[in-house]
Amino acid sequence: AVSARLLSEVQSPHLLGVLDSGLDQDGTQFLITEALSGKRLSDVLERERPIEPRRAARWLRELALASEAL
């Protein structure tokens, strides 16, 4: 619950925004984020191997920027 609250305070174009979080009726934690469109990374990796180095570098850059925001 604390981590969800802290994550909701992070503002970055590289992370999905947290819209809501809490506990449901049976005590299970939930986190509602902005919708994300596009392909699943696992599907891309399965269908489009080998991945071009420049494309992989762009993905890694996005991951690094997202991590930096945290």
Explain the overall architecture.
By secondary structure, this protein is of the alpha+beta class. The protein is built from 3 helices and 2 strands. It has a two-stranded antiparallel sheet with strand order 1-2.
Give the topology, please.
Layout: H1 2-8, E1 18-23, E2 29-33, H2 41-47, H3 53-69
Antiparallel strand pairs: 1-2
Features:
70 residues; alpha+beta; 3 helices; two-stranded antiparallel sheet; 44% helix
CA-based shape:
elongated
Characterize the main sheet. 2 strands, antiparallel
Mean pLDDT, to the nearest integer, reads 90
Total beta strands: 2
Share of residues in strands: 15-25%
Q: Going across the major beta sheet, what is the strand order?
A: 1-2
Counting helices, strands and paired strands, the structural category is alpha+beta
In sequence order, what are the helices and strands, one letter per element?
A: HEEHH
